[in-house]
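Let us work through a complete example step by step.
Step 1: write down the sequence.
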Amino acid sequence: MNKPKVLIAFYSRNQSTEQLARAVAEGAIEAGAEVRLRRVRELVGADVMQQVPGWLDNANAMNAKYEAPTEADVEWADAIVFGTPTRFGSITSELKAFIDGLGGLWFQGKLNGKVGSVFGSTSSLHGGNESTLLSIYAPMAHLGLVIVPLGYADAAMFKAGTPYGATHVSRQDSLKPDADHLAVARFQGRRVTQVAHALHGHPEAVAA
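Step 2: predict the structure and record it as tokens.
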């Protein structure tokens, strides 16, 4: 039988969100999923990116590792997990542009019933992690996704993360996600896979 298919579509500038994405992928694979890990692309050119130290180099390095997500990836997936840093308390324009580009699939009803979940990171403490994740819930509802939060269904949730999704605070990019935050992200991958299994009938999936 086919494995549950999980697409992780994320944007990351300084690798914190990338590390969460990789942990989500690890959890999903552990639970029996087939995973596609994709990084959405910048909306600005190299001249703009060069004004922010490290942005262009990091983007080039990550884009060499990850393909850009496509409509075909979305149609393939049983579950879609979005990941984003916070921009003024909300989703990045890069990830939002990708979501906005799914109108054709939405119009055809091809997104209805797919599992949806979110994770993210901020630079500063109280910098908008929860508001950012919640801001993505609205477009997921419009797309017809079955939104899967984390609640407190795993012991890892009592040490890190939020009930809305895995998170991290980088403190001006001086910290990378620690073991507790990565554990939450792995749980998120397992939980999404479990729900995709329940909704789409893939018997090989392992319960989270």
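Step 3: interpret the result. The radius of gyration is 16 Å.
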